[in-house]
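Q: Structure tokens for this one, please.
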Amino acid sequence: MIKGPDLTRIEVIKLNAVCDGKLNLSGVNLQGVDLSGLNLSGANFEGANLSKAYLSGTNFSGANLNGANLTAANLFNAKLEGTILTKANLSHTNLQNANCESAQMEDANLQNANLRSAYLELANLKGAYLFNAKLEGTYLMKANLNYANLTGATHSDTNLESATLEGATGYNP
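A: Here is the predicted structure, written as tokens:
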């Protein structure tokens, strides 16, 4: 038997309203749920399943998505400033035009992710897996890409000014 999401969009909106910025949905299954355009800043989604979720324009600034599953989620134009995405699975995720300034993405899986025109200034991508990621026009100024795997990643017009790439593999300027 296939189990659906634990909560609907309406239930998340109601919970968020009563939690006064302290929403805790750690470990919750929100697979395929539409949370687009919501303000979920500061919320805790640690270990949550947000795979295939529609999160376009959602504000996750300062949120905790440590170890969350965001496989094939749509985060187009999302706000992820200062968001914790350490060890998160973002494979096949659309992060085009997302603002990920100062995001903590250490050891995150970004295989085949679309990061075109995303803003990742000061982002920590240490040890991130960016195999075949689309980085065209991405702003990675002062980002930490140490030990990241960039094999097959496309990166024309990518701004890597003052970014660190010590031990990174697969990067061909």
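A few notes: The chain has a mean pLDDT of 96. The CA atoms of residues 50 and 164 lie 30 Å apart.
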